[in-house]
Amino acid sequence: MLATVGAPEPSDKAKLEEVTKLMYTLRLDLREKNLLPPLRNAKLEQVKVYARKVEGAGPIFSREGIETLARHSFDGNSPTTAREALRCLANALLLNVESRQYFVDMGYAAKAVEKLKNDNRDDEFLASRILFLMTYNTSLDFDLLFDTHQLGDGINANITRHSKNFSKSSRKSQNPMDEMALSETLKLLFNITQFYPHRAETFTKSIPHILKILSRTKIPHPPLQPPVNYLINSLINLDLEGKTSPQSTVNPLFPRFDPNCNADRLTNILDAAVCNYEAETLEQVATPLVTLLRSIYSFAPEGVKEQMRSLLLPSEDERDRPLGRSETLSSRLLTLTTTTVAPTLRDSISNMLYELSDKDQNTFVRNVGYGFASGFFVAHKMPLIPGTAAEAWSTKEGKSRFEYPTGTVSEVNPITGQRLDMEPVDTGPELSLEEKEREAERLFVLFDRLKKNGIITVKNPIEQAIEEGRFEEVD
Fold it and tell me: How far apart are CA 319 and CA 42, in angstroms?
């Protein structure tokens, strides 16, 4: 009895019997061609159902089982049968790591490359997924696939086809298979450039097409879902600056019609991401985006750099409150620099803000406040220069001032970055002598702990005051 979708699952023993019969029948069919196409496809459909779980499905994942599915996938004449077999094969390779090497040893990887080149989204999806799985735990030589079977050209051609669906003149609605195929192609591209970095140059010609798709695709909610996350990831290892293979006189990242458009798009995606994901999730999904923004800033024209600083650093209006307290993107980014649950993202954001400050400590303190900046300095074992927050801001008059890009100058709190004229006024009663003594004692203990932990090397101001004779003992 064959399994049907939605039917109760058989026991592992009964399932094993059914799977054994199915795989025997399909293998016999390769030799005798005794199954009519509809029946052959139906049996492959049943294999796909059984292959969703490893238990009781051993014959599917065996060397003989992988060979049977591969032959139906690549050696037959029916595209429908081939795709049904490819689905079974892709599921098997996903669930069973050992079966991937069987596939490689039989020499079918080259046939998967040829299948990938077909102008068919199902073939692109299935072949790309199989090759993507081959990047893990196999001895497959991808260099051979590039040199002998033009894998890079096939991937570039598929990305170009997808980009045509996003042209202004004839923008086609994306069906689910288009999106799934694009995602698998981008995943494959990323893994190849990650594990074979010397092949990244092959995909330089795809950069304009990836950027076009990213700029015109509808951003989902929340934003870092397929294909947006894969579009971003695919760019990370590519030669965006054009060092090894200049693409043209104009870098596609900064087109003449709007040099800021791609940086703006990525920043808007980051803004939506930090509003819609918790920090733990952002650690996984947003770190590549921050990495990409940092990369772009490192070689962007000055006009684009200025635009990125205006979007990512605190604005003039934000200094009405202590920095990090508003709902803006820059404020949320500052908050993430103190999180303990997303260490990689935290460090990447901190480094980005430091780079946006021209890697200058004084500028960094003025941009984000000494409270946030000092944590970065300590984490990176950088000397606390300037030694005090006020030194980073001080003018000839000795006041802490901040000059905005608009030319406005305001006196600010050097620790929080807030304008002094917007700080709340303490209207409460003055501390009593006993309260002042308790506060002094707390400060003394705090400085002593910081000094012992090596966090600061400055002398405790209370200790210094005592040594200088500014404290008198009271009888």
Answer: 67
If you count them, how many residues does the chain have? 475
Closest Cα to residue 300, out of 256, 245, 241?
Answer: 241
d(CA 17, CA 35): 20
d(CA 457, CA 383): 10
Task: Show the tokens assigned to 408.
Answer: 């406005």
Query: Could you give the CA distance from residue 310 to residue 312 in angstroms, rounded to a whole number?
Result: 6
CA distance 182 to 189: 11
> What does the alpha-carbon distance between residue 192 and residue 195 come to, in Å, rounded to a whole number?
5
Q: Which amino acid is at 210?
A: I
CA distances from 186 to 157, 230, 234, 450 (A): 12, 6, 6, 48
Q: Residue 410 phi/psi, 5° resolution?
A: -135, 145
Band (pLDDT 50/70/90 cuts) for residue 295 is very high
Q: Where is 142: in which H helix or E strand?
A: helix 142-149
Contacts made by residues 305-312, CB under 8 angstroms, sequence distance 24+? 306/405, 307/260, 307/263, 307/264, 308/263, 308/267, 308/356, 309/356, 310/405, 311/263, 311/264, 311/267, 312/267, 312/352, 312/353, 312/356
pLDDT in tens, 47-81: 999 999 999 999 999 999 999 999 999 998 999 99
Supply the DSSP symbol for 317. Answer: G
Torsion of CA 189, 191, 192, 194, to 10 degrees: 120
What pLDDT was estimated at residue 408? 55
Helix residue ranges, H only, 319-404: 329-336, 343-356, 361-368, 370-379, 389-393
Give, for 402, the enclosing helix (H) or strand (E).
Answer: strand 401-403
Q: Could you give the angle at the alpha carbon of 377 between the alpha carbons of 422 and 278, nearest 5°?
A: 70
Q: Which amino acid is at 462?
A: I
Cβ-proximal residues to 147 (8 Å cutoff; 6+ apart), any chain:
none
Mind listing the pLDDT tens digit for each residue in 218-237? Answer: 999 999 999 999 999 999 99
Amino acid at 107: G
The single residue listed with the structure tokens 């430091």 is: 354
Distance CA 449, CA 460 (A): 10
